Amino acid sequence: MSNTDATLVGQKAESQWRKSDTTWTLGLFGTAIGAGVLFFPIRAGYGGLIPILIMLFLAFPIAFYCHRALARLCLSGSNPSGNITETVEEHFGKTGGVVITFLYFFAICPLLWIYGVTITNTFMTFWENQLQLMPLNRGIVALFLLLLMAFVIYFGKDLMVKVMSYLVFPFIACLVLISVSLIPYWNSAVIDQVSLSDISFTGSDGILVTVWLGISIMVFSFNFSPIVSSFVVSKREEYEQDFGKQYTEDKCSKIISRASMLMVAVVMFFAFSCLFTLSPQNMAEAKAQNIPVLSYLANHFSSMSGTKSTFATTLEYGASIIALVAIFKSFFGHYLGTLEGLNGLVLKFGYKGDKTKVSGGKLNLISMVFIMGSTWVVAYANPNILDLIEAMGAPIIASLLCLLPMYAIRKTPALAKYKGKTENIFVTVIGLLTILNIVYKLI
């Protein structure tokens, strides 16, 4: 075989899209689609049509450029099998590894608090509105739900992981089905309220502030950063030795791009379908009631007068059940990451003895008591979920997803080739705007 023929064979092999690439595309997509998606339509639709159209324009760049930046950081390590912690330690020393451990823990733990509030409110609204039963004590409901999840986690973690992995795509299918089924109920209320003379760009209800806060929810809802490190390691081990690092990076970018397109298509279609079915006033009510949009839709169809369609009757009961399953799924997935992070922090800073003699079961139990205890306190306090996302969850995710890779590009020789690229400015601005939500909430 001539050199030219060998080159052509190599190029053909490189251009092939493998089954593993499709698997990872769906894996990234499935990781991002969780309970956070149920709050995005509320924030996006809260300001009406114009802000959500701007968010539609921003959605793909936020999802793609931010996750690609994190993937590039993971790819920059010298060890193809090294995860993000090892890569950061390679670039910034052990201090960097400690920072990553803190970020991972504090990026995931507030999400559990959010899900604790969400599942309590979702269950209580289903109990009172769909089942028409007497109101229950909030503290007891939250404690019961968390103890139920703790029991499942402690005695059936392996089964739980398997079940949750099977629930990802049925949940996505339900979202798509609901989005399509809502089309007959679309109305022009959100369009009728658009008045060019009344448009305000500033102020607490202005377009700029609404989009700014919406960016935080997009960072939160379109987030598959917890799995990026594992994804990059898998692709490096599969491609790097045969085709080189640049090809591996290009393949990772294509996979992230396709996962982002799928994610944006599903979530934005769901958001628009909800917005055209409800109204900005309905979204404001959902925010005030502190419930996910599916629960509000269930109550909305429950209150309809006259003869109801089969879909309306099904959604009245099914929406809350789908929301509960989605929240359980997200809670379990994030619990494992929180447990791992807290165990690491305890061993690093809270335990002075021989770490090899620490009982894994005892450590897991201590961490579980702290995680579930703090989640119960927050669930009982019932802070506004969107405010909690904007003030805690999204800013910490943004620091890991956006600002850490941008800092590494400026300081690390292995990433120097990415300096000066236009998308770096975009990713940095998104990260800063998301983090500045903390300041906005304090003012």
From TrEMBL:
GO MF annotation, one: L-serine transmembrane transporter activity
Keyword RNA-binding: no
Membrane topology value: Multi-pass membrane protein
UniProt-listed Pfam families: Trp_Tyr_perm
Source species, domain of life: Bacteria
GO cellular component terms given for this protein: plasma membrane
Chief location: membrane
Subcellular localization(s) per the UniProt record: Cell inner membrane
Keywords: Amino-acid transport, Cell inner membrane, Cell membrane, Membrane, Symport, Transmembrane, Transmembrane helix, Transport
Reaction catalysed by this enzyme: L-threonine(in) + H(+)(in) = L-threonine(out) + H(+)(out); L-serine(in) + H(+)(in) = L-serine(out) + H(+)(out)
Transmembrane segments: 22-42, 48-66, 97-116, 136-155, 167-186, 206-234, 255-278, 317-342, 363-382, 388-409, 421-440
Purpose of the protein: Involved in the import of threonine and serine into the cell, with the concomitant import of a proton (symport system).
Protein family according to the UniProt entry: Belongs to the amino acid/polyamine transporter 2 family. SdaC/TdcC subfamily.
Name of the protein in its database record: Threonine/serine transporter TdcC
Organism: Buttiauxella agrestis ATCC 33320
